[in-house]
Design goal:
- The N terminus is likely disordered.
- The chain contains 8 helices and 13 strands.
- The protein is of the alpha+beta class.
- A hairpin with a 4-residue loop joins strand 2 and strand 3.
- 13% of the residues are buried.
- Helices cover 46% and strands 18% of the residues.
Length: 292
């Protein structure tokens, strides 16, 4: 924030935030030659789109952000860029304009619900409808339209059900946390790092003696990709553990039932809402489901 304010800028742009979130320098790595000089007289530099080689150096300097947190952020950025692929095959771009955007789904056709301002005989209201009833998706759907206020009340009821039975849910959450911990294998990355260290030594030895080192170079690239996948998987498990612990913390802190709708709690706790003819199924980020 201070960095932007010093230059007289008061607004955060999406592109600026994305660059910050994707900057490998924060985890101690460096991507060399992101740009290159096209005119050595004017010192003009342009973005390197593969014209000259780029080199990725790990642990080139001290990190200020844990690598696993950075990997979780990259995973979330990929998830948001992909959006939601509907049952009709159409891509729905990620949106955070409203707390319920892209978390309400149709129990009949599987499509997402969209927010609609309705004017029915002079009476204005805000409702959520399946997009199969709003546009041509190729799917036949007769799902019901739901008032936004009703969805809000349903989230309150679902959260209160958890609070009312929190002893049972806390037991389940603790078991799930233990399961995630037991499935996390931190040795994979360290084993790959050992192999990479040995291969780097072999690569230098062969290069100095002017021998062919292509096979070793290929193996180093393969192991780096394997390491990246292992880090992403580890970050995903830590993210799951964090979501379970967040729910556990909430239930331990909440001593009374909710009296009114709380948007921040919905953003914090709820992953998905599925609309059926006779109920709403509320799925929490911890994996717990409650029917209302």
């Amino acid at each position: 924030m201070a960095y932007l304010q010093e230059r007289g800028k008061k607004r955060w742009h999406t592109s600026t935030i994305r660059k910050i979130l994707s900057n490998e320098k924060y985890i101690g790595d460096a991507l060399l030659q992101k740009t290159y000089t096209v005119d050595f007289l004017t010192k003009k530099r342009v973005v390197n789109n593969g014209i000259v080689p780029q080199y990725y150096v790990e642990n080139s300097h001290e990190a200020i952000i844990p690598r696993e947190i950075f990997m979780q952020v990259q995973e979330e950025l990929v998830r948001r860029s992909r959006g939601h692929i509907s049952t009709s095959g159409k891509k729905r771009n990620f949106s955070s304009n409203h707390v319920f955007s892209q978390i309400i789904f149709c129990g009949e056709c599987g499509e997402i619900y969209r927010r609609v301002h309705w004017n029915n005989r002079g009476k204005k209201s805000i409702v959520w409808r399946c997009v199969s009833r709003l546009e041509n998706t190729g799917l036949t759907c007769h799902s019901r339209t739901v008032l936004e206020d009703m969805i809000g009340l349903a989230t309150v009821e679902a959260i209160n059900k958890l609070i009312g039975q929190k002893d049972d849910f806390l037991t389940i959450l603790k078991e799930n946390i233990e399961t995630v911990i037991s499935e996390t294998d931190n040795n994979i990355v360290s084993e790959i790092d050992k192999k990479l260290e040995e291969l780097q030594k072999d690569l230098l030895r062969l290069a100095n003696s002017k021998e062919d080192y292509n096979d070793i170079a290929d193996e180093i690239y393969r192991l780096r990709e394997e390491r990246h996948k292992a880090l992403a998987e580890e970050a995903g498990k830590k993210g799951s553990k964090q979501r379970l612990e967040d729910m556990e913390k909430f239930l331990n802190e909440q001593s009374t039932l909710l009296e009114e709708y709380d948007e921040q709690l919905v953003r914090r706790l709820i992953e998905k809402i599925t609309v059926y003819d006779d109920k709403l199924t509320i799925e929490f980020k911890s994996g717990v489901e409650v029917d209302v």
